[in-house]
Design brief:
By secondary structure, the protein is of the alpha/beta class. The protein has helices at 14-19, 86-90, 107-125, 148-160, 175-187, 201-207, 245-262, 264-278, 282-302, 320-329, 338-356, 361-373, 392-399, 429-438, and strands at 40-48, 63-68, 73-79, 98-104, 130-139, 168-173, 194-198, 212-217, 220-227, 232-236, 412-415, 421-424. The strands form 3 sheets. Strands 1-5-4-6-7-10-3-2 form an 8-stranded mixed β-sheet, with helices on both faces. It binds nicotinamide-adenine-dinucleotide (NAD), the ligand O=C(O)C(=O)C[C@@H](O)[C@H](O)[C@H](O)COP(=O)(O)O and zinc ion. It catalyses: 7-phospho-2-dehydro-3-deoxy-D-arabino-heptonate = 3-dehydroquinate + phosphate.
Length: 442
């Protein structure tokens, strides 16, 4: 396993660190120095050729999960070395000879070179192939990049590249990059081909799959967005080796969510293996990604656009009416990670279920104990951030703005035991208050 970083802060100045990532094979790139208001842009050229999937020296077969739906019909490939062989997987999905990689300033120095070098290797192996031009737009790391202003900067930079409808957008990064780049892909020229290259545990098990893309608004989390399915998800497990431990744990929160929402065997697997997953065991991480993607692919394939009112895709929102309210109360600044907010939200959803008689106190304690053991917050007092726990009134307000709300009334995915759940619209304000009080809010 590679060296795990304890912080997400980029190391060194941008220009200095970036120069290391201009491999000698690149044709002279036109690099624009980082401008504060624009996404960073770099341009590379390589060649477009046939896939090298059958080359025995490079073909370590990845695991494949398929997503099916109306607009969705694509593979999720998971395994090691996928970025290293990125071009051979990506090129067959590129309609034209132009791709734009959208990434962030933490991920670029760690994993961009590997991806770019795969195009170089591919070009060398197919010297007569049509050239591929790759541009790179780099955004600041963190939740703040899921904003209308950052979207505007990225869109301006993208349009300035002279894109056309065959330009492929490649999201290299976590859920923030994926949601932002996906929304850019959905809206630029009314829709561009899109490929997800997730590099966090959260994005490999959840956000890269299913086509939800979007931005945060002052009024709430992900309130601006579109369903826009990728053509391919390439989840390289090697990238998880550089992920900070806190981010790994946050991603684990979504795995537990998936188990509780609709896959009891996954929840039980988590109880048995969660400690190893959050410790970064590569075999367990790979198994967690495979199991969770299989579950999500099934749910999304059956209800791609979240139309099923009670038992469809909405179940993936378990813990999110609570969690999103906490994130919104912290103004989406990223002090509280999404997966941490979800973990607290799961405890609150279990408390709500006990109150409404659909889960037992023992089941609630089982979930809370497991999340606490894996280092995730289970009460509002444990939440990171300078603002302290938000007030109950503020949280109640944000819950009524959630996308699932109707006529100003919040909706909640309520667990029914462990491994089953249902969207419910009859939860009273008194019940929510009681749950918030019991989990450390005032
Ligand atoms: N679209 C969906 O279905 C969906 C599902 C779940 C969550 N989300 C969204 O995803 C976002 C959270 O995603 P996230 O947890 O991936 O956060 P993120 O994208 O902010 O990534 C977390 C941090 O890790 C860094 N990072 C990424 N990959 C790395 C690597 N391999 N090594 C080292 N550092 C790395 C990033 O720069 C960032 O600082 C939230 O905005 C959430 O709303 C969307
Ligand atoms: O894919 C889905 O559907 C989910 O609900 C997955 C969630 O983990 C994710 O956080 C999603 O963005 C939340 O749903 P939203 O519709 O409120 O954005
Ligand atoms: Zn989520």
């Amino acid at each position: 396993m590679g060296k795990r970083r304890s912080t997400c802060q980029p190391r060194g100045g941008w220009n200095r660190s970036w120069q290391r990532f201009w491999p000698s094979w690149l044709t002279t790139p036109s690099c624009h120095p980082c401008r504060p208001s624009l996404a960073r842009l770099d341009t590379f050229e390589t060649t477009l050729g046939p896939p090298a999937m059958n080359n025995p020296s490079t073909a370590q077969q990845p695991l494949c999960v398929h997503v099916k739906g109306l607009a969705a019909d694509y593979d999720i490939l998971t395994g090691q070395g996928l970025l290293q062989r990125g071009a051979e997987h990506i090129i067959p999905h590129m309609k034209g000879g132009h791709g734009v990689i959208i990434t962030d300033e933490n991920v670029a120095p760690l994993h961009l070179e590997t991806l770019l070098e795969s195009f170089q290797a591919h070009a060398k192996a197919h010297p007569k192939a049509k050239p591929v031009r790759l541009d790179v737009l780099t955004v600041p790391a963190g939740e703040r990049s899921k904003s209308l202003s950052r979207y505007g900067h990225v869109m301006d930079s993208l349009l300035a590249l002279g894109i056309d409808r065959r330009t492929t957008i490649l999201a290299l990064g976590g859920g923030v990059v994926g949601d932002l780049a996906g929304f850019v892909a959905a809206t630029a020229l009314r829709g561009l081909p899109f490929i997800q290259l997730p590099t966090t545990l959260l994005s490999q098990v959840d956000s890269s799959v299913g086509g939800k893309t979007g931005l945060n608004a002052a009024a709430g989390k992900n309130l601006i967005g579109a369903f826009w399915q990728p053509q391919l998800v390439l989840a390289d497990s090697d990238t998880l080796a550089t992920l900070p431990e806190r981010e790994l744990k946050a991603g684990y929160g979504e795995i537990v969510k998936s188990g509780l929402a609709g896959d009891k065997a996954l929840f039980e697997w988590c109880e048995a293996n969660g400690a190893g997953v959050v410790a970064g065991d590569p075999t367990l991480l790979a198994e967690a990604v495979r199991r969770t993607c299989t579950f999500k692919a099934r749910i999304v394939s059956a209800d791609e656009h979240e139309r099923n009112e009670t038992t469809g895709r909405a179940l993936l929102n378990l813990g999110h009416t609570f969690g999103h309210a906490f994130e919104t109360a912290q103004h989406h600044e990223g002090a509280l990670l999404h997966g941490e907010a979800v973990a607290l939200g799961l405890c609150q959803a279990m408390a709500l279920a006990v109150l409404r008689g659909s889960a037992t106190e023992e089941e609630k304690q089982r979930v809370t104990r497991h999340l606490a053991q894996t280092g995730l917050p289970t009460t509002a007092q444990e939440l990171p951030g300078d603002h302290g726990a938000p007030s109950i009134e503020v949280l109640l307000h944000h819950m009524t703005r959630d996308k699932k709300a109707r006529d100003g009334k919040a909706a909640f995915v309520v667990p029914h035991g462990l491994g089953a759940s249902q969207l419910e619209r009859t939860v009273t304000t008194a019940e929510i208050r009681q749950v918030l009080l019991a989990t450390g809010c005032a």
